[in-house]
Amino acid sequence: MIDFGFDKLALIGAVALIVIGPEKLPKVARTVGHLLGKAQRYVADVKAEVNRSMELEELQKMRREVETAARNVEQTVQQELRDTQNALDPGWQALDGSVQSVDTPAGYNDPLREPPGARAPRKNWRAKRAAVPQWYRHRHGVRGHVQSGAARVARFRPPRPSR
């Protein structure tokens, strides 16, 4: 880059003063300053855009690597499940043969299923709601009682001044 020392800047300023004149020199200097500022901003924008595109390319590369790793893990897990299932199938078949010989209710031959009349117990949602602490409900705005819109307006309406 060009090296401007104090003596060179003074020489350029003296020549500009003589050529342009003292009346127009401040206006020209201001214009040159604005143009240099715009040029610096433009260069900074270009640098930022290049950096953003480089980061985007890196992120896309990382995403592809993570996707391939996830696919490999999924394929490995599926293969292990298939191998395990193939290893356990003869045992299940032997178990099915022995269970069918045992006296079972009509239409119920699978030892792993529940009998036809059995039902899962219902979950008590009231007990679950009561298990949440009161301070947590207040902090997160969980309403204990539902109000209509008119009741809410009446509740939060400022009191009327007495006459």
TrEMBL record:
Its main location: membrane. Residues 52-83 form a coiled coil. The keyword Phosphoprotein does not apply. Transmembrane segments: none annotated. GO terms for cellular component: TAT protein transport complex. Residues 154-163 have a biased composition (Basic residues). Residues 99-126, 144-163 are annotated as: Disordered. Keywords: Cell inner membrane, Cell membrane, Coiled coil, Membrane, Protein transport, Translocation, Transmembrane, Transmembrane helix, Transport. One of its GO terms (molecular function) is protein transmembrane transporter activity. It comes from the Bacteria. Pfam families: TatA_B_E. InterPro entries: TatA/B/E, TatB. Signal peptide: none annotated. It is found in: Cell membrane; Membrane. One of its GO terms (biological process) is protein transport by the Tat complex. The keyword Transport applies. It is a single-pass membrane protein. Belongs to the TatB family. The Tat system comprises two distinct complexes: a TatABC complex, containing multiple copies of TatA, TatB and TatC subunits, and a separate TatA complex, containing only TatA subunits. Substrates initially bind to the TatABC complex, which probably triggers association of the separate TatA complex to form the active translocon. Part of the twin-arginine translocation (Tat) system that transports large folded proteins containing a characteristic twin-arginine motif in their signal peptide across membranes. Together with TatC, TatB is part of a receptor directly interacting with Tat signal peptides. TatB may form an oligomeric binding site that transiently accommodates folded Tat precursor proteins before their translocation. This is Sec-independent protein translocase protein TatB. The gene is tatB.
